[in-house]
Backbone:
């Protein structure tokens, strides 16, 4: 077994992981973008817009819980026992088909409160399969490349989410131009979810031609596969706790930034709420985040050490946080967009090191289960971020921007704490990916 060089198989393994992240960004951000519309059609008109929107965003919590369950089940019984590649084939089929069926859901005017119940149910199914995407894809791609290349390759894999985000924005802009704003509430959101089957099919085709991880094949040939891989997480409890805290902070930041911007911009500037310009602005911010994750991976290549890289990027983020808040509340659109873009850039740079960091922290025998369980487990508290903003801002003395800043501060504290508690992996000696 060797992870010391690139080859055609490795390229397909990396693309398999990238395609899953693209699918995730496409579906997840699509849901966030149409959240104001879903709030108006899945709940009675007697609900205030804020309350209905909060309930729609609770769908993210439902999905996060399902991802955690899915990562344990699929990671433990597929990824670490039957293979990373097989796990990804099953997960993408379930992910794309269940996302596709969201477009068929009845709304409140048709079936009353059964509508949001069905929505939450489908989101749970989507989450079960999506939970396998990060753990299987990140594990497969990190085991496919040499240690020195893992940071830039991990950055590329992570950028799949942003690429899916950008493609979704283009698709929505096209659908609006074809059907018109008048059809937006009734038709565009449905067609948007119907299109999720396309990236799912593309990802499936790539994975059907992808080979299994050499690390897993070697482990299988040597009879090193554990009967219950999930138990291995408890053997690395210090790394598990540190990683969980770190990722909770980072995913909470992501929840209240890139996932919240489409709605937050409309709240800050009422004239944008129903304007097509808001999609253009979010596309621009997303492109900047893509540049951030790619540059972050390239710079990390030279720093090499995973913990040090995470620390450097996180300190930069904390230094700019308060100035960013001041720009956001300046009531000047250009400055707000500049602030959002700066956050997106640095936040994406932090994410660039996560796949390599997690893959090298955990043993090969339970790597898929551990990465999925911790990443998706951390996403559960993080998924409450947007709802927490609306809850805090419901108090008359607290503005939406102040509530947003407070959650950002909490996120930063968790992020730094997790990094401090973490172990360094990018140092000399035997490649930790084979341990």
Residues:
């Amino acid at each position: 077994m060797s992870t010391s060089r690139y080859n055609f198989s490795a390229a397909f393994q990396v693309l398999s992981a990238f395609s899953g992240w693209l699918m995730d960004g496409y579906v997840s951000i699509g849901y966030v973008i149409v959240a104001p519309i879903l709030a108006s059609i899945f709940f009675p008109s007697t609900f205030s817009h804020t309350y209905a929107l909060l309930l729609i965003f609770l769908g993210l919590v439902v999905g996060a819980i399902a991802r955690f369950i899915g990562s344990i089940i699929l990671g433990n019984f597929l990824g670490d026992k039957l293979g990373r590649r097989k796990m990804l084939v099953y997960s993408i089929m379930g992910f794309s088909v269940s996302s596709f069926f969201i477009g068929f859901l009845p709304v409140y005017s048709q079936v009353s409160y059964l509508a949001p119940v069905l929505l939450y149910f489908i989101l749970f199914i989507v989450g079960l399969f999506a939970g396998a995407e990060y753990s299987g894809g990140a594990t497969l791609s990190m085991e496919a490349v040499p240690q020195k290349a893992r940071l830039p390759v991990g950055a590329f894999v992570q950028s799949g989410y942003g690429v899916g985000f950008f493609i979704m924005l283009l698709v929505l802009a096209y659908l609006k131009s074809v059907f018109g704003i008048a059809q937006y509430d009734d038709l565009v959101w449905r067609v948007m979810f119907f299109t999720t089957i396309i990236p799912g099919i593309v990802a499936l085709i790539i994975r059907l031609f992808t080979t299994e991880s050499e690390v897993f094949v070697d482990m299988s040939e040597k009879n090193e596969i554990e009967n219950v891989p999930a138990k291995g997480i408890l053997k690395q409890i210090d790394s598990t706790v540190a990683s969980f805290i770190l990722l909770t902070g980072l995913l909470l930041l992501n929840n209240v930034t890139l996932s919240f911007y489409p709605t937050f911009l409309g709240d800050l500037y009422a004239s944008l709420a129903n304007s097509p310009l808001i999609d253009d602005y979010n596309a621009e911010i997303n492109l900047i985040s893509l540049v951030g994750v790619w540059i972050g991976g390239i710079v990390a290549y030279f720093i090499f050490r995973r913990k040090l890289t995470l620390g450097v990027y996180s300190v930069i983020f904390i230094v700019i946080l308060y100035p960013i808040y001041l720009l956001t509340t300046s009531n000047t659109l250009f400055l707000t967009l500049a602030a959002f873009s700066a956050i997106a850039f640095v936040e994406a740079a932090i994410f660039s090191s996560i796949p390599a960091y997690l893959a090298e922290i955990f043993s090969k025998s339970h790597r898929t289960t551990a990465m999925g369980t911790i990443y998706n487990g951390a996403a559960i508290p993080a998924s409450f971020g947007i709802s927490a903003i609306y809850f805090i801002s419901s108090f008359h003395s607290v503005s939406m921007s102040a509530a947003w800043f407070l959650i950002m501060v909490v996120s930063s504290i968790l992020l730094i704490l997790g990094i401090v508690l973490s172990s360094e992996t990018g140092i000399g000696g035997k490649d930790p990916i084979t341990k």
